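Entry 14. Structure prediction run on the chain below.
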Amino acid sequence: MKKVVVLKGGRSSERDVSLVSGNAIAEAVRELGHETFELDPADFPDYYLLAQRLHDLKPDLVFIGLHGGSGENGELQAALELSGFKFAGSAHQACALTMDKYVSKLLAREEGIPVPDCILLREDLLTDYNDPADYQSFTDRLSLPLIVKPNDGGSSVGITRVNRLDELKSAVRQAFAHSKTVLLEQFIDGRELTVTVLDGKALPVVEIRPHNGWYDYANKYTKGNTDYLVPAPIEEPLAQLLQLYAERLWGAFGCRGFARIDFRYDEQTPYFLEVNTLPGMTPLSLTPMAAKAVGMDFNHLIAKIINISI
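Output returned:
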């Protein structure tokens, strides 16, 4: 029996999802017979006090059930590393690299993996523009529709699909409400595919098919809004290519434990979108679905992550 502390909640815009993930993880850890404690970093003014509490508990492992913000961008991981705690998931450097969507695309491109064209905004360049023609250059390069998203967010929070030029300004403003930098990204019209990598080995590809619209926050977290096909109904050479890309990116970013890597496929080319170093662990989450496809139920998945982390 091990002593495991599950971190859940946090202060990011993905707090609600994190609470669901954290509760599911904690329940599984208990069912596996481990001594289990649950902590919410939002209850501590800073990481120093959180580390003090962890030192009091002396866990064998900290299982991070957080999503977004400082729980996934490497800050928490760095604090745990400096304090000498073992934790599930990637180290701080990999988390920082993957959380920055623009930087991660640059690295993927250097690995020879296709990525959508994109433009990074470090400030709201549209705030003083009143005529949509003033920012026509963005759509001349990326075309319409395009995606506007926080550069370091997740769970589709703050993301907008822009179909008309006059929608761009408000979409950028919304994204800046969630991040200091915003990404304008070419929209890849095609299929949504994702690959979980567990301990360096890719699991079966999952296809995501929303019933209506695109895979936004509502379709991600509303039961019945989206169909998930595991393994994805794609040709075997494409599945193998996606798994190869996922494993290569895992190595390039220096991930460890588990991660989920998302792609779009336009029937010709699979495009890398992003890496999730702390993928969701909710009843609708993709990583547990992929694990189930190889005979690994949720508790078995959590046990595997605990073992490889310790």
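The radius of gyration is 19 Å.
Filed with the rest of this week's runs.
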